Amino acid sequence: MMRAVFWGTRGSLPVALTAAEVRAKLIAAVTAARGRDLPSGGAVAAFVDALPFATAGTFGGHTACVEIVGGGSEHVICDLGSGLRPLGQSKIATFGPARPQLYHFFVSHLHWDHLMGFPFFAPAYIPGNRIVIHGCHAELEEAVRLQLSPPGFPVTFSSLAAHIEFDRLVPGQTKETAGYSVTPKLQLHAGDSYGYRFERYGKTVVYSTDSEHKLEDAEERRGFVEFFRNADLVVFDAMYSLAEAASVKADWGHSSNVVGVELCQAAGARRLALFHHEPIHDDARLARLLDETRRFEEIVREGRPRLEIISAYDGLAVDL
Ligand SMILES: [Zn+2]
Ligand SMILES: [Zn+2]
Questions:
Q1: Which segments of 13-114 are extended strands (E)?
Q2: Could you tell me the distance, in angstroms and rounded to a whole number, from the CA of residue 12 to the centre of ligand 1?
């Protein structure tokens, strides 16, 4: 069994639904219910489940944090965005504070949105827990220590009760961790970022966020096609639409839904998860982006097997 659990899917900055947005969702739902006979709680629940996701749900607002679950007792987590806070609460609720846990973090890069959850990760404050922070940046330890120091934060790194280590990885070199074969890859982003390919039990998940792609560069393209090769799931930075990515936001260090489809199709990947959502986009806009991406995939499929496309949201679990 292998599963990806999305705890944070928003790019750059956490966002929350406003009262006005909740009200608009309620008005849409009640309007859809007019004239319907909903005699039981079960009927109401079934009605709500059939509503469009942008009406009945939300993509959510936590920044990048994705858990890879593979049946082992060690926890494997990509990035320390604000989604790490609810992940930590969930682990304490499941295992209790007294049973020591081992957490492996794989850090894409050191921008705020990918580290901001760590000071709020409650297991870091519990003695007996062990945390290994893996990453390719030379400044990895320095950046995490700096975040937990005054004047930015009242608690210092050295006062955290858990045992914390750092593990420097080398791009292109596969390492066995927690039962997974993990391979990092350098990506184009300000200050560099790294994607991670996880393999176990013949299943593959690729976590590739905060990466701009220059597909006209054949070698760059080949490198990513190889990195995504036959993956069961590719978590992909699709912050922009192609029009945005190609025009005003070129060189901003992010990618688009269209580039994600092209690379995944060329790689024979099975499923693409749009990820690192633009904070300005509301639920309706993100739902439209997903629809457009699915239509685009159909148009350019040309006899290849269908690439399944999903848009990641906080709380989504994908079984592989
Ligand atoms: Zn980011
Ligand atoms: Zn970044």
A1: 65-69, 75-78, 102-106
A2: 5
Ligand with minimal distance to 12 CA: 1
Distance from Cα 64 to the centre of ligand 1, integer Å = 7
Find tokens 């391979």 and name the residue. Answer: 183
Residue range 240-299, pLDDT digits in tens: 876 676 666 666 778 889 999 999 999 999 999 999 999 999 999 999 999 999 999 999
What three-state secondary structure class fits 237?
strand
Q: What is the pLDDT of residues 103-142, one digit of tens each?
A: 999 999 999 999 999 999 999 999 999 999 999 999 999 9
CA distances from 167 to 22, 135, 159, 163, 170 (A): 43, 6, 20, 13, 10
Asked whether 68 and 205 are in contact (CB, 8 A), the reply is: yes
Which residues are CB-contacts of 245 (< 8 A; sequence separation ≥ 6)? Answer: 254, 255, 256, 258, 259
Grade residue 149 by pLDDT with cuts at 50, 70 and 90: very high
Query: Which bound ligand lies closest to the C-alpha atom of 191?
Result: 2
102: which strand partners? 130
How many whole angstroms from 28 Cα to the centroid of ligand 2?
A: 35
pTM of the predicted structure, to 2 decimals = 0.96
> 162 CA distance to ligand 1 centroid (A)?
26
Residue pointed to by tokens 């629809």: 291
Task: State the distance from the centre of ligand 1 to the C-alpha of 251, rounded, in angstroms.
Answer: 14
295 C-alpha to ligand 2 centroid (Å): 28
Q: State in Å: Cα 285 to ligand 2 middle.
A: 22
CA 83–ligand 1 middle distance (angstroms): 13
95 C-alpha to ligand 1 centroid (Å): 30
Tell me the pLDDT tens digit for each residue of 178-196: 999 999 999 999 999 999 9
